[in-house]
Write a structure and sequence with these properties.
heterodimer, A: 300 residues, alpha/beta, B: 404 residues, mainly alpha, two-stranded antiparallel sheet, 4 strands
Chain lengths: 300, 404
């Protein structure tokens, strides 16, 4: 990567390193792409992206590597909190600004945390579901919820926020118990296929991400019942959820913004000596047919 | 043979189905009842769903059965399947044919057609039927070639026939490669197919990530061309095509294992490789062919996966090799090789599928489902191994249970 030389070219004054936990998920791919695009706007920055391949041990090794190289700032999107807390604190203690993205760590020894609030997104999805089913206090219908990875905090929070809203609506019934779609379209398809057999009346599907909502739609389409059911997803990636909203497949999706661009801007502020808040929460947005145009690839 | 022995023999043959029968009974008993009083679990629609849901794992497990029979293992089936699905989606969404495509597809078909034909011909002196099958296959491939050559869809990517030929061709070559390294290089199948598993995942991600910023290739909700949609249609409104393909694979493999020399050789090699070699069996060739078949079936599964879920997904198959191995072992095939059957695998596959279906129809919490699955796997294996019966007999008569 040309790091060994230790010299900084005159235009690239700052080496900013990013440890990404994985790059195989579409959301992570977009995350990296937008981070790179932001870095391209700042000629004074040399951006280094490392992929930890979904393994905590790899990510710790990358962080140690960055500390040894004495990069100017570190961005990290941790795979999980427990295993990475120590190394984040180490980097911070070594005097390197550390911006933690998307998932937090269990220490105060970091410069800034930037992420979206999954609980809030779940709540927004719940409110939209209530609207689609008849409005506050009057909403009626049978809901199928398809979970993301059951052990992951995003899934738990996306559920909790949604449930919080739904609990106030006696007319809404969740007809399927916890079903783990593991964020995957094919798993969601199979879950929905069976749910359609067991429940003659399903009014709305809430999936913890867009590919699962799409998978549930495909199952309903194959069973000839897609028109009677509304589908809500989360993430709002231009090539997935937004496209499907525009095509009328999903009733809506909720933006789960990637924190990379903001992370780089905050890192630059720190390097220039400006003060930054300890925590930045990125806002979500409801994406429906009415406003989807501004989120599609062409508009980006 | 006394009546008692006859009876015990019958029980012995039936014990493979005991687990399945018990599961069916439970399914019927606990199934929700629809508004019109019908049993949802037993409804033809639901059983067709189960057949479809197990078909991917099932086809992989058919190949895995053959590999395990020769005391091998193929860890690459999942990722090779996913590579197949990604390739399929790529080819279908490709705009316009390149010259390379014109050359590659028919060449692949020709090579594979002649190789399959020659192999079946050589291995089947006893069976005239197999020669007829060879002729049919050659004819089919020639027909496929003609269609692939004459009727490409220039606007919407590869024709379905071309995909159906090209993708399994590619994965057959990958399987052959693994097989050659294992057979000629005398390397452990575990490590060779592990390497292939990793490489296939990488290749799939490479081709998926090239033109798309997301690591998936979607073919749209309608599923590419109408011809491609046929791959997830239902024959006669009830039998899903993937399920049909699975049952067909079981039938062909079962026939081959029972009646073709190739099949008998697998048992011989799995029983004692050295003895098989000494008795004149070309062990290297048979081994290579076995891994090649496993690769071919993985590619076929990939095409079906793409048709069903309308996507090619590089990491779709991660972990599927374990499901396939589990189905094979539950079906009574020994991991040490030499003993087992494809029909047993069919039963193993259905034990998984029916259990999934029952638990989901009852809305059982996912984590509870996992516990149930673990328990059922052990129970099914105990039932099929006949250990339960032996233990009972031991208890009442003081016989020592026989160890295998």
């Amino acid at each position: 990567m040309g790091l060994g030389c230790g010299k900084k070219s005159p235009e690239a004054r700052w080496r900013i390193a990013f440890s990404q936990c994985t790059t195989t998920e579409p959301w992570r791919v977009l995350f990296n792409a937008r981070l790179r695009a932001e870095a391209a706007k700042h000629p004074e920055v040399k951006l280094i992206i490392a992929d930890a391949q979904d393994k905590t041990a790899n990510q710790v090794a990358q962080m140690e590597n960055f500390i040894r190289q004495r990069v100017d700032a570190i961005l990290i999107s941790p795979k999980e909190s427990a295993g990475l807390t120590d190394v984040v604190a180490q980097a911070y203690d070594a005097g390197i600004p550390v911006i933690v993205l998307d998932r937090g760590v269990n220490t105060d020894k970091y410069t800034c945390f930037i992420g979206a609030d999954n609980m809030e997104i779940g709540r927004a999805a719940g409110e939209y579901a209530v609207e689609l089913l008849g409005g506050k206090g009057r909403a009626k219908g049978n809901i199928v919820e398809i979970w993301g990875g059951m052990g992951s905090t995003p899934a738990q929070e996306r559920h909790a926020g949604f449930q919080h809203v739904i609990d106030n609506e006696p007319g809404i019934k969740t007809v399927v118990g916890r079903q783990d779609g593991d964020w995957k379209q094919d798993r969601a398809y199979n879950i929905m296929e069976t749910a359609l057999k067991a429940h003659p009346k399903i009014d709305l599907v809430y999936a913890h991400n867009d590919p699962m909502a799409f998978g549930a739609y495909l199952a309903a389409q194959d069973a000839g019942r897609a028109q009677q059911i509304k589908f809500i997803g989360i993430d709002g990636i231009p090539e997935e959820g937004c496209k499907w909203v525009a095509e009328g497949i999903l009733a809506g999706t909720f933006l789960y913004p990637t924190p990379g661009e903001e992370g780089l801007r905050v890192a630059l502020k720190v390097l220039r000596g400006e003060k930054v808040p300890k925590r930045i929460t990125l806002p979500t947005a409801r994406i429906t047919k009415a406003n989807v145009a501004q989120f599609l690839p062409a508009a980006q | 043979m006394s009546r008692k022995q006859q009876l015990l023999g019958l029980v012995g043959r039936l014990k493979l189905y005991l687990g399945l029968a018990a599961l069916l009974a439970v399914g019927i008993a606990v199934s929700p009842v629809a508004a019109d009083g019908t049993n949802v679990f037993l409804s033809p629609d639901n059983l067709a769903d189960v057949l479809r849901q197990v078909s991917n794992n099932g086809i992989l497990a058919v190949g895995m059965t053959m590999v395990i029979l020769i005391a091998g293992i193929d860890l690459s089936v999942g990722t090779v399947m996913a590579l197949g699905s990604t390739l399929t989606a790529m080819l279908l969404t490709l705009r316009g044919w390149s010259t390379a495509a014109y050359v590659t597809v028919p060449t692949c078909a020709l090579v594979v057609g002649s190789a399959t034909g020659a192999a079946v011909w050589r291995l089947s002196t006893k069976w005239r039927a197999a020669r007829v099958v060879t002729a049919l296959m050659a004819g089919l491939l020639a027909g496929g070639l003609a269609v692939a050559w004459l009727a490409p869809q220039t606007s919407t990517g590869f024709s379905v026939l071309a995909v159906l030929v090209a993708v399994p061709c590619v994965t057959l070559l990958l399987g052959t490669l693994s097989g050659l390294i294992i057979a000629k290089g005398r390397l452990q199948p575990f490590i060779v197919t592990l390497a292939m598993m990793i490489a296939a995942l990488g290749s799939a991600r490479l081709i998926a990530g090239k033109d798309h910023s997301v690591y998936q290739v979607y073919i749209g909700p309608d599923g590419a061309t109408p011809a491609f949609q046929l791959l997830r249609a239902r024959i006669g409104g009830i039998l899903p095509v993937p399920g049909f393909v699975f049952l067909l694979c079981v039938a062909i493999a079962s026939f081959a294992l029972r009646n073709l020399r190739f099949g008998r050789y697998l048992y011989a090699i799995g029983g004692n490789e050295e003895a098989a070699r000494l008795s004149g069996i070309n062990v290297e060739r048979i081994k290579t062919a076995t891994y090649a078949i496993s690769g071919l079936l993985a590619g076929l599964t990939g095409v079906l996966y793409c048709a069903q879920y309308r996507q090619g997904k590089p990491d779709a198959g991660t972990g599927m090799e374990l499901d396939a191995i589990a189905a094979v072992v539950i079906g009574g095939t020994s991991l040490m090789g030499g003993r087992g059957s494809v029909v047993g695998t069919l039963v193993g596959v259905f034990i998984f599928g029916l259990l999934n279906n029952i638990l989901q129809l009852r809305n059982v919490d996912y984590n509870v489902q996992l516990v149930f699955k673990g328990v059922i796997i052990i129970a099914a294996v105990l039932l099929q191994e006949g250990r339960l019966g032996e233990w009972f007999r031991h208890l009442f008569r003081g016989h020592r249970p026989a160890h295998r």
